[in-house]
Write a structure and sequence with these properties.
Strand 4 and strand 5 form a beta hairpin. The chain has six helices and 15 strands. The relative contact order is 0.16. With 250 residues, it is an alpha/beta fold. Bound molecules: ribulose-5-phosphate. Its EC number is 5.3.1.6.
């Protein structure tokens, strides 16, 4: 007699399905391979970047990396880095950053990004704009054909003063894309960034069109501090998928 298992003895083992977080970790660990001792490092924010910061902390502890200076892109990453014993500084002391590693919310085929759904867009843009190399780490769900067309938020950091006025002007700017501008909240309260500002999330029914024009138009509005489009900034994009890791360089 035999027991029916449903598997023939020759069948290959079932495929391992990786979770999104495992894919994020794979991309993050790959990026940390670019880190060398003595570097000034931009430390990103979010669940993907968190894995990279953890890994940098681990390599420091093991003595495999030495003489690193981290420039955190948020208070949260600052706290994480402190807990890991990563020496920290800022752009005032280190205006040139060797390498930054950070996640993204959307990546288009030209390596332009949407960032800031975690709310840290301003500091991220400052630190990553000061980098010689900016390595973006994502799982494949972040790949889009056009920025802003995913139906998810395009974040804009604004000053709290008359934010409704600014939100209306932002919405009018992208009226043709069916834009709805919403104040980001936590519970009943406005979400407040590390810089004491608010975030207006733009929800677009169509992609935002010419990115440079959209960027210039947003930044021209008084009341806007920064937006989440990171155009022509990434030098490398590491994408983790079920099929493996792909690395694209500019
Ligand atoms: C925070 C960011 C994050 O990098 C972005 O939101 C991606 O986050 P996650 O890695 O958690 O998916 O821009 O402001």
């Amino acid at each position: 007699s035999s027991v029916e298992t449903g598997l023939s003895p020759l069948s290959s083992p079932p495929p391992v399905i990786l979770t999104q977080d495992e894919l994020k970790k794979i991309a993050a660990y790959k990026a940390v391979e670019f880190v060398e001792s003595g570097m000034v490092l931009g430390l990103g924010t979010g669940s993907t970047a968190k894995h990279a910061v953890d890994r940098i902390g681990e390599l420091l502890r093991q003595g495999k990396l030495t003489n690193i200076v981290g420039i955190p892109t948020s208070k949260k990453t600052h706290e994480q880095a402190v807990s890991l014993g990563i020496p920290l500084s800022d752009l005032d002391s280190y205006p040139v950053v060797d390498l930054a590693i950070d996640g993204a919310d959307e990546v288009d085929p030209f390596m332009n990004l949407v960032k800031g759904r975690g709310g840290s867009l301003l500091r991220e843009k400052m630190v990553e704009g000061a980098c010689k190399k900016f390595v973006v780490i994502v799982d494949e769900s972040k790949l889009v054909p056009h920025l802003g067309g995913s139906g998810l938020a395009m974040p804009v950091e604004v000053v709290p003063y008359c934010w409704k006025f600014t939100a209306k002007r932002l919405q009018d700017l992208f009226e043709d894309c069916g834009c709805v501008a919403k104040l980001r909240t936590t519970g009943e309260q406005p979400f407040v960034t590390d810089n004491g500002n608010y975030v207006i999330d733009l929800y677009l029914k169509k992609d935002i069109g010419d990115l440079k024009v959209a960027s210039d138009n947003i930044l021209r509005l008084a009341g806007v501090v920064e937006h989440g489009m990171f155009l022509d900034m990434a030098t490398t994009v590491i994408v983790a998928s079920e099929l493996g890791v792909t690395i694209r360089n500019k």
